[in-house]
Amino acid sequence: MPVGLDVSALLLIMAALLVAGCAIGFCAGFFGIGGGAISVPVFFEVYRLTGNVDDIAMPLAVGTSLAMIIPTSYLSAREHARLGTLDLAVLRTWLLPILVGVICGSVLAGFADAELFQLVFVVVGGVMSTRMLFGGNSQQIKDTLPGRGLLSAYGLGIGLLSALMGIGGGALSTMILTLYGRTIHQAISTSAGVGLLIAVPGAIGYVIAGWGNPELPADAMGYVSLLTLMVVMPAAIMTTRLGARAAHTRSRAQLSRYFGLFLLTVALRFLVAIVFGV
User: Fold this and answer.
1) Is a pLDDT exceeding 70 seen at residue 137?
2) Bridge-partner residues for 220, per DSSP?
3) Pseudo-torsion of CA 8, 229, 18, 158, nearest 10°?
4) Binning pLDDT at 50, 70 and 90, where does residue 133 land?
5) How far is the C-alpha of 201 from the C-alpha of 203, rounded, in Å?
6) Using CA atoms, how far apart are residues 113 and 128, in angstroms rounded to an integer?
7) Poorest-pLDDT segment among 66-70, 106-110, 224-228
């Protein structure tokens, strides 16, 4: 940490990271997401406050967020599997396409404008959240999952967009699965596993991309902050199971509304980032 920060500022940063960790863990369990929509902006502001320039703060925030998603997604998926709603067949189908999508997205991130993909999420997430909040079951386009080819294409798209937008893919996969007749409980449970499929190669990629960069903080391993993980991970791990269990105490209609509100919040967050650059 830079010398310019006094004790009160450091305590405030620690408190913010602990609160973020609790929120990341609970949301990972409750919504089947990795928590990137929460952790990336929080980590970014923390790294800026501690003296890192934006060109370092942003990839460090995304890389650390992806590393954070690994344990929370694993714990969330394991808890949902114990409760009997994790669809391993879908995860097996998506394993390779998502990996290919993440690799392609990581390559494209150096050339494509991430704001374009955030705008896609704003539109799609806004429409889906509105239909979940006000449209009952009308958001379904089919009662069964598509064939392996189309399902694999969806997996490729999830991996690609997640890598470009710096998110864990849970929101995207839940939207797709509910469109094809999966209950919200099944979709959220399976999406917890999707976060793990995306986070592992994503975090490794960010470690490699930042390896040896002299501008990184001393605690960083590539674009992953080990100090941040040490502070945030225990809080996140503590609340992940609570979130998963809470999801299974809610009715399908309640969980659909909560997820609709979550989608709307993330879409608005991306919209603010596009319009104001923050």
Assistant:
1) no
2) 225
3) 130
4) confident
5) 6
6) 24
7) 106-110
